[in-house]
C-alpha cells in the first residue's frame, strides 16, 4: 500500500516514459528497418564503384552492357561492340557482370 501511494505521488518518470517511449521505439524500429540497410547498400555500391578496373564487363543503370576500355576518377569509356565506344559517369554503372582478370585466365 505504501508503494502504491508513493508511485501515485511521483508520476513524473512514468509520464515521460509513457510520452516519449513510443517515439524512441519508433525511431529504433525505423533505424533498423530503413536507415541501416540503406547505409549498407550505399557502402557496397561505393566499394563496387571503387574496385572497377579496365577490362571489367559492366551493366549501366540504363541496361547497356559493355566492357571498360578506359577509366578515370569520374568517367568511364565503355566498348559496347567492336566499333562503338561510349562515355559514362562512374556513377552510371549499376553492376559488374564479370571481371577482366577472370576472362583472361579462361
Automatic annotation (TrEMBL):
Transmembrane segments annotated in the record for this chain: 15-35
Q: Which SMART domains match?
A: YajC (SM01323)
Taxonomically, which superkingdom?
Answer: Bacteria
Its subcellular locations are: Cell membrane
**What keywords tag this UniProt record?**
Cell membrane, Membrane, Protein transport, Translocation, Transmembrane, Transmembrane helix, Transport
Primary subcellular site in the record, as a coarse category: membrane
Keyword Ligase in record: no
Q: Which family, according to UniProt? A: Belongs to the YajC family.
PANTHER family per the UniProt record, alphabetical: SEC TRANSLOCON ACCESSORY COMPLEX SUBUNIT YAJC (PTHR33909)
Protein name per UniProt = Preprotein translocase subunit YajC
Q: Which organism is it from?
A: Paenibacillus agricola
Amino acid at each position: 500500500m505504501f508503494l502504491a501511494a508513493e508511485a501515485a505521488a511521483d508520476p513524473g518518470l512514468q509520464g515521460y516514459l509513457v510520452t516519449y517511449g513510443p517515439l524512441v521505439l519508433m525511431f529504433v524500429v525505423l533505424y533498423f528497418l530503413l536507415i541501416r540497410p540503406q547505409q549498407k547498400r550505399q557502402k557496397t555500391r561505393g566499394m563496387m564503384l571503387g574496385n572497377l578496373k579496365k577490362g571489367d564487363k559492366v551493366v549501366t543503370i540504363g541496361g547497356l552492357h559493355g566492357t571498360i576500355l578506359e577509366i578515370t576518377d569520374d568517367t568511364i569509356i565503355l566498348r559496347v561492340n567492336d566499333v562503338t565506344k561510349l562515355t559514362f559517369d562512374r556513377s552510371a554503372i549499376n553492376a559488374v557482370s564479370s571481371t577482366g582478370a577472370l576472362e583472361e585466365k579462361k
